[in-house]
Each structure stands twice: as structure tokens, then as C-alpha cells.
Specification:
The chain is α+β, with helices and mostly antiparallel strands and 319 residues long. The chain has 8 helices and 7 strands. A 7-stranded mixed sheet has the order 2-1-3-7-6-5-4, sandwiched between helices. The longest helix is centred in the C-terminal third of the chain and has 66 residues.
């Protein structure tokens, strides 16, 4: 079991080992973070932290989704953010989860992946920017949404580049990019929509350890999550339209090539008949005449010119 602990008193944070985090003493905040990888985390939360079984189960569950639940004076919060190694979670999800249990004076958080937001919150608490559980959770929400915002914006920029560079010579490259952007946008939106609802619910909980400024920060994070969810929905719809445009462009490309092949076949069809006819091993009129080869070549040239002129007049080449 790996992790760390912080004890905060008068804005000064002291990092301690997990075994020392719950030591007696007057402090404003105790934060214990665990990297859940085995049953030892469950045992510590149950036996050392004395958390209820339903809280321990929620903190160590394998499958999670963003949510917020109030239990007595505490709140259980589940959020999703990017992992440091950019690897999807164990269930194949695009974002890793952080599970938080907060009560007055104490916060317990659990992750299965090393999240970017956790490192950022550590820097903030060590700099003296966090003094109570409300500050800690608001900082988590702010860091997660702030980290995801440029990722969502980058998906939109990639789609803009695809729309501006739409060209028949780049169909396969564009289709790969559009498909990847669409998959990522769906993966992000899957969690950002309930995450917004979870943050909004937490901001309205009647918890004494949530101050007015904490609620404002949570509401701001919820608003940013809502804006990103709307942007992702727009990206998803634009990706679908872009995919249809690429499919139409590919079909038009195939039709054009088929048309060219048909025109070439129509040009050579009468020529093939004439050359095949005079290539037969049977006597034909004027077959031995010295001028017959020139006559056949001239006839082929006239037929070819006639067929091409016909196609031009019918505008086949412009279709």
C-alpha cells in the first residue's frame, strides 16, 4: 500500500507517513491519500481510519462513475481526471478516478492511477493554499477541470484542421483523425456530464465544513465541466458530419475513377472489335492489300476521335 498524509495547522502543512497521519493532536485538516492496489488499503481504511463499511467499499470499488453522496456529516465524492501516464483506467476508461471521503477536519482520497490533479493539489497544500476540507475538495475540482479544459480545446482544434484541410488526397489520414477525435470526445463526455452534476450537488450540501468561497469554487468548476460537456457534444456531432463528408468524398472519388474507366473502355471497345476482326485467321476483303494497315489505323483514329468528341459534348468528363 502506497500513499501519503498531510497534517495542516494554521495554514502550514506537514507531510507525514500514513501511519502517523491520524496521530492525536489539534490540527485543522488531515489529508490521507492512498494508491489502492491491494486489500491492505481496505484494511487500513476500515481498521485504522474506522470508516464505515459502505464508505470503504465506495472508496475502493473497481468500477466507478462521478457522483456525490451525503452520509451524515460527511460527503462521498467521485471525480474523474487525467492520469500522469495518459493510460486509461483498468476498465478501459479514458480518465482515471479519484474517490474522496470528507468530514469535518479529515479527507481521505483513493486512486488506482497517479493523477495529475493529485500532484497539483500537493503543491498547493505545501504552499499553504489549503486550510480545511472544503479548500481541499474545491482545489481537487478546480485542478481536474483546469487540466481537462485544454484537452477538450485541442480536440476541437484538431477537428477544425480536418474541416479546413478537407481534400480527396487526404481521405484516409483525415478519417483516422476524425475517428480518434470522436472516440476521445465520447470518452470525455461520458464522465464530464455526471461530474458536473456531482459538483453542483456538493456545492449545495448543508455541510458545516464547506464555506461560502468553497461553494463558489465548486460552482465555477461545475460550470466549466458543463461548458466542456457541451463542447464535447458539439465535437461529437461535428465529427459525425465530417465522417459523412469524407464518406461522400470517397464515394465521389470512386465514381470519378469508375467513370474514367468506363470512358476508356468505351473508346477501346470498337477498336478492339476492328483489330480482333482483322486478326482472325480467315480470308477477309483487302486483307493482303499494302494500304490495309494504314486504313485500319486511320479508321481507329477516326472512331476514337468521334467517341471522345461525343463524350465531351455530353459533358461526361465534367461529371
Amino acid at each position: 500500500m502506497s500513499g501519503f498524509g498531510y497534517r495542516v495547522k494554521d495554514g502550514i502543512a506537514t507531510r507525514v507517513a500514513i501511519s502517523e497521519a491520524l496521530s492525536p493532536g489539534a490540527v485543522d485538516l488531515i489529508w490521507v491519500h492512498l494508491s489502492f492496489g491491494d486489500e491492505r488499503a481496505q484494511g487500513w481504511l476500515r481498521d485504522e481510519a474506522h470508516l464505515p463499511d459502505y464508505v470503504v467499499d465506495a472508496l475502493t470499488a473497481v468500477e466507478t462513475r462521478p457522483r456525490c453522496e451525503a452520509f451524515d456529516e460527511g460527503a462521498l465524492l467521485n471525480l474523474r481526471g487525467r492520469a500522469e501516464d495518459d493510460v486509461a483506467g483498468v476498465s478501459g476508461d479514458l480518465l482515471a478516478s479519484v474517490r474522496i471521503w470528507a468530514v469535518a477536519g479529515r479527507v481521505f482520497s483513493v486512486t488506482r492511477k497517479t493523477m495529475i490533479a493529485v500532484r497539483a493539489v500537493q503543491k498547493t497544500i505545501e504552499a499553504g493554499g489549503i486550510g480545511d476540507p472544503g479548500d481541499l475538495i474545491a482545489e481537487f475540482a478546480a485542478e481536474i477541470t483546469e487540466d481537462l479544459d485544454p484537452q477538450v480545446a485541442d480536440l476541437g482544434d484538431q477537428l477544425d484542421d480536418c474541416e479546413q484541410g478537407l481534400d480527396s488526397s487526404r481521405i484516409f489520414e483525415l478519417r483516422r483523425t476524425v475517428s480518434r477525435v470522436r472516440v476521445e470526445s465520447i470518452g470525455y463526455r461520458r464522465f464530464l456530464q455526471p461530474q458536473r452534476a456531482a459538483l453542483e450537488k456538493l456545492a449545495t450540501l448543508p455541510a458545516s465544513w464547506l464555506q461560502d468561497d468553497d461553494r463558489l469554487h465548486l460552482s465555477a468548476a461545475a460550470d466549466r465541466a458543463a461548458r466542456m460537456a457541451e463542447e464535447l457534444e458539439s465535437i461529437r456531432e461535428r465529427s459525425a458530419l465530417m465522417h459523412e463528408a469524407l464518406t461522400d468524398l470517397r464515394a465521389e472519388q470512386i465514381d470519378t475513377r469508375g467513370l474514367i474507366i468506363s470512358i476508356v473502355a468505351m473508346v477501346f471497345l470498337p477498336l478492339t472489335f476492328i483489330t480482333g476482326l482483322y486478326g482472325m485467321n480467315v480470308p477477309l476483303p483487302y486483307q493482303q492489300a499494302p494500304w490495309m494497315f494504314d486504313a485500319i489505323m486511320a479508321a481507329c483514329a477516326v472512331i476514337t476521335a468521334g467517341v471522345v468528341i461525343y463524350f465531351v459534348q455530353r459533358h461526361w468528363f465534367s461529371r
